[in-house]
Design goal:
The protein has about 180 residues and is α/β, with parallel strands linked by helices. It folds into two domains: about 35 residues; about 140 residues, Glutaredoxin (3-Layer(aba) Sandwich). Strands 1-7-6-3-4-5-2 form a seven-stranded mixed β-sheet. α3 crosses α5. The longest helix has 26 residues. The chain is elongated and about 85 Å long. The N and C termini lie far apart (about 60 Å). The relative contact order is 0.19.
Amino acid sequence: MNSKKELWVLLASFVLPIAFGTAFFYLSPTSFTQSTVNYGEFVNPVISTTEKDIVIDEAYDASLQGIWTLAYVTDQCEQSCLKTLEDMKTIRILTNENMRRIQNLLIANAKADNIDSQMLIARGSSTLMKKLNSFPNNHLFLIDPLGNIMLHYNPEGLVIKQVIKDLKRLFKLSRIG
């Protein structure tokens, strides 16, 4: 009799946590989908890019493939644009040893003056710009090493530490780029 009781206790100790966890997951789905640990907002659905969508200026020997990219999209680079570009440079520097895993990119329709020489300058295709027009103008985007636009930040009130935390988490989990 005693061995049957021990068998049921042993079986319950394995089955009950799985049953309670599954019930908790399916009975309260909002607690899992509403909160995230990232500070940027996910681009949903993810916007995939090709080499023809973002044409980097010929003066640079660069590509979006294999490297994380912080891209600032604007129609014309004015004072707020220059401040955001400076913030992007600071973010890249503060990623420390992962600095080589990220590049900064300005996607502008107009000619950009007074831009740092380390900043890549590119033009977006009309199809890409149509997709990005669903976001407010002058937004900061994070492009993964496969060329997918996955996160966006509003540069007004941009907290550099939060962007760095997002990047460090991605660098830790990513095996590419």
